[in-house]
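Example 9 (inverse folding). The structure is encoded as follows.
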């Protein structure tokens, strides 16, 4: 090597670390960029496929709106707890029958009817027994604080909900929704109102996602999309009957989540530029299972 650091032409450069060569450590030759790869493994999204998956987000947002609407009706004495309990029972039986009728995923052993009946009986018994306690749970807390806690918990439920695989729902999202339900139910007139509200919350936030996940995996895509759209329409219409401003905000949020955000995702894919090359970390592809 000469005094200016330029290597002699008779010594070819090799990309190895274990051999001493008359080149600087950061030297590369003209073949360096020949191994450049752009957007390797890039997924091409289709707009309506993304809209279909985003429908699950809009549907869960509508479930929260439906729950708030039912609470408003009970809080204003426009809906009796008996009516809500009988309606929830009929919906639960219909949903359970549909869930049993749909084929279970491969490798998943279905629960027996006796186990399902025991779980339902235990929940209903404990909830009914503790309803008077839950009714007075937040008596020492101001109403504004209770409403603020319920709003934060419902937001936490939406943020932490496992949209990719919601059956069963994540423990954090389910606990947040049930905590918000307890906060709101404690502001209702009686213990039976509290029991009806908590039973409805379990139906909406725990059992309904399981049925919807089974429907997404077994039913044709059009049926799943129709169910999500129907839930969104019910959520907007129900909330609009008591709070038109809230219904307008909900409709705007649903349009943004299910239509605008997928459009932005698809449009921005053309600007994605991931580069890979010899500077990446080495990946070991050799099968090492025989060493275990």
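The amino acid assigned to each position is listed next.
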């Amino acid at each position: 090597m000469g005094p200016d650091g330029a290597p002699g032409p008779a010594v070819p450069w090799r990309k190895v670390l274990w051999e001493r060569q008359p080149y600087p450590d950061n030297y590369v030759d003209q073949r360096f960029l020949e191994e450049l790869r752009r957007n390797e493994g890039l997924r091409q999204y289709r707009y309506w496929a993304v809209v279909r998956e985003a429908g699950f987000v809009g549907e869960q947002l509508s479930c929260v709106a439906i729950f708030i609407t039912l609470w408003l009706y009970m809080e204003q004495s426009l809906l009796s707890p008996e009516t809500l309990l009988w309606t929830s029972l009929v919906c639960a039986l219909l949903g359970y029958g549909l869930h049993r009728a749909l084929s279970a995923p491969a490798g998943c052993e279905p629960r027996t009817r006796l186990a399902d009946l025991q779980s339902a009986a235990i929940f209903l018994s404990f909830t009914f027994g503790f309803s008077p306690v839950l009714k007075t749970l937040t008596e020492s807390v101001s109403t504004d604080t209770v409403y603020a806690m319920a709003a934060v918990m419902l937001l936490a439920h939406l943020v932490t909900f496992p949209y990719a695989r919601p059956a069963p729902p994540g423990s954090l999202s389910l606990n947040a929704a049930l905590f918000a339900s307890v906060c709101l139910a404690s502001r209702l007139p009686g213990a039976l109102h509290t029991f009806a509200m908590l039973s409805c919350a379990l139906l909406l936030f725990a059992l309904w996602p399981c049925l919807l996940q089974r429907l997404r995996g077994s039913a044709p895509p059009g049926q799943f999309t129709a169910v999500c759209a129907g839930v969104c329409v019910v959520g907007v219409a129900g909330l609009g009957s008591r709070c038109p401003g809230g219904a307008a905000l909900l409709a705007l949020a649903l349009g943004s989540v299910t239509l605008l955000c997928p459009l932005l995702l698809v449009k921005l894919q053309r600007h994605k530029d991931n580069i890979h090359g010899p500077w990446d970390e080495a990946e070991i592809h050799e099968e090492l299972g025989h060493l275990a």
